[in-house]
Amino acid sequence: MDAFYGYMLYGISLATMGGIYAVLTLGLNVQWGFTGLFNAGIAGFFGIGAYTSAILTTAPTHRHLGGYEMPYVVGFLAAMLLCGIIAYLVGKVCLRLRSDYLAIATIGIAEIFRLILKNETWATNGPRGVSEIPKPFEHWPEPWNQFAFLALVLIIVAIVYVLVEVARKSPWGRVMTAIRENEPSAKAAGKNVEVFRMEGFVIGCMIMALAGALMAHYLKFVDPNATDPLLATFLVWVMLIVGGSANNKGAILGAFLMWVVWSATEIVTSRLPDELAIRAAYIRIFLIGLMLQIFLQRFPQGILPEKRPTVPKSNQNNEAL
Amino acid sequence: MAEFINFYFIPGLILGSIYALGAIGITMTFVILRFANFAHGESMTLGVYFAWTLVQLTGLHPLVVMPIAMVLTVLYALSIDRIFYKPLRNAPVVMLVVASFGLMLMTRSVVQFFWGVQLKSVLPGIQRPIMVLDYLRISPKHLLIIVSALVLMFAVHYLLTYTKIGKAMRAMSDSPELARLTGIDTEKVVLATWVVGAALACAAGVFLAIDTHVETRMGFKLLLPMFAAAILGGVGRPYGALVGGLIIGLAEEISSYPFFGTEPLLNPGYKAGVAFAIMIGILIWRPSGLFKGKVF
Questions:
Q1: Which residue, of A34, A125, B140, B184, has the greatest Cβ tally within 10 A?
Q2: For the segment A268-280, what is each residue's pLDDT rounded down to a tens digit?
Q3: Residues in A lying within 8 Å of B, measured between beta carbons
């Protein structure tokens, strides 16, 4: 029975982390899948979201800026708002240029944020990070608190999914696809490409911030490793490409699938002797990278390919008139 | 004044020439293969580890074994191009950026797997600086780096100005369509771009390793300044990349000089942010860079 209980808790933690990654991947899907924007600094927005919510909700302490003891909702909303503003400023500079510049600038944002974390120890407690972050339902008895948090994550995944799915099928989403596929003709049709791109970029970054805030409250702890480009940027990219870009179900599937693969391989490698275990960790990264390359070359559509929304009948008639 | 030159200007010059050599590869891949190569820093890291291994095997000075390390790095870059980039050449270019981003982490994990993550050094021992004109202090390793960097820069200049392939590269970077129409062999130019870029990346990495030490994140740390240098100089402009690299390197070092009073102008912890700030500035006011490069 004890073994079963342990497996169950492990399953819950897998599902919770998978859910948080699903939110991140949905955010990236709005940027990459819908709009074709390359964000190489997901870790930056994720980290900014995590720290913002952490600092706003923790109890007073001398170790870092904080002590506002705000409700979670305020933390989540502030995280999204701040990332939205930063994304707007970055977008203002880079979105009129090709996607590569945005990639370079976003990786820069992630690096600058890491520098701030390192240098402004009065606000962030430096490498020791922010701890004792309150977690929703943490006073409930074990294991119900875990279940409740998982439910919260899954509800948020569902809400984000429904919202981005509605957006994808709406005229807004169709303009996005048009811009991604053929920018000159979208422009010729009178669409303001820059404004649409900006909306996609800002919304995506806000969703990423939400995922960051969730992660901070789930782990009750956040340190500069949150901005590690491997776990927070690269893995998310692999999730989306494998799951199927531009398909929201694919994004969620990819997130859960790759998180299970990532965690399962960790179980295997952690059983090896120490020296080998450290080296095996690098093989894991290499293999995940190889998987990305194989999908890019052979199955660029991912597991669940994009499905274009059908234009409703009534609309078609209107357009014909 | 002597303090300014010895501790800010000369280190800035060293760092600047390292960025400059690295940025040439970035700017040429950007314009000829049409994508921002995120794995460029990792070619640099790999080249340094090749050089380190050769130094361990032969006991020679790193600059002596550097040509061999450069050849190995070029072979690496060419096989990467064949296996990972070539199949995507007809796909949307942004796919290449994604692929290079993946290769960045793959290459680094290979380095970490084979060589471990401990700090290493290519040139053991502490060197006594040479005094010039009583107040100028320059350490022998800095002198070596500057001289070798100058030699490489002249080699690049010679290649681009006097050789057929160099002229073809410049033609491709000015106008790929026109270059193709005049019968320039595109694949050959792509090949040359990888050779030049990887060789210079390896050299820049070895210079940095001589100046500081060898570690697995060194290429990634250089990536942002190199992009900044390429954009500042104008994408597709090799001479621009040289100037851009020197400006970024100097700006990073000089930014922490105490111009007013005794406090550094900028907290040295934010040195790495200077390149980013310059890059954002140039993207806002002059995206074509100082030397009127390409804007995509």
A1: A34
A2: 887 888 778 888 8
A3: 36, 38, 40, 93-94, 97-101, 103-105, 107-108, 111-112, 115, 118-119, 229-230, 234, 237-238, 241, 279, 282-283, 285-286, 289-290, 292-293, 296-297, 300
Closest CA to A232 of A254, A257, A211, A253: A211
Can you point out the beta strands (E) in chain B?
130-132, 136-138
Place of tokens 């190995």: B72
Residue A65 is given by DSSP the state: S
The ipTM value here is 0.87
Which tokens in the block code for residue B134? Answer: 């009583």
Token pair in block for residue B187: 């694949």
Name the residue of chain A whose CA is nearest to B89's CA: A297
- Pairing outcome for strands B130-132 and B136-138: antiparallel
Whether A215 and A18 have beta carbons less than 8 Å apart is answered as no
Q: Under a CB-based contact definition with an 8 Å cutoff, are residues B18 and B142 in contact? A: no
Check: CB of residue B141 under 8 Å from CB of residue B123.
yes
What is the rounded CA–CA span in Å between residue A306 and residue B225? 37
Give dist(CA B195, CA A43) in Å, integer.
Answer: 32
Written as one string, the DSSP assignment of A126-193 is GGG-B-----TTTTSPTTHHHHHHHHHHHHHHHHHHHHHHHHHHSHHHHHHHHHHH-HHHHHHTT--H
pTM, full prediction: 0.90
Q: pLDDT by residue (tens digit) across A166-207?
A: 999 999 999 998 988 888 899 998 889 989 999 999 999 999
Q: How would DSSP label each residue in B216-279?
A: TTHHHHHHHHHHHHHHHH-BT-HHHHHHHHHHHHHHHHHTTS--STTS-SS-GGGHHHHHHHHH
> Could you tell me the sign of the dihedral formed by the alpha carbons of B68, B74, B76, B82, in that order?
negative
Are B30 and A93 an interchain contact pair (Cβ–Cβ within 8 Å)?
A: no
Q: What does the alpha-carbon distance between residue B25 and residue A171 come to, in Å, rounded to a whole number?
A: 42
CA atoms within 13 A on the CB side of B142: 21
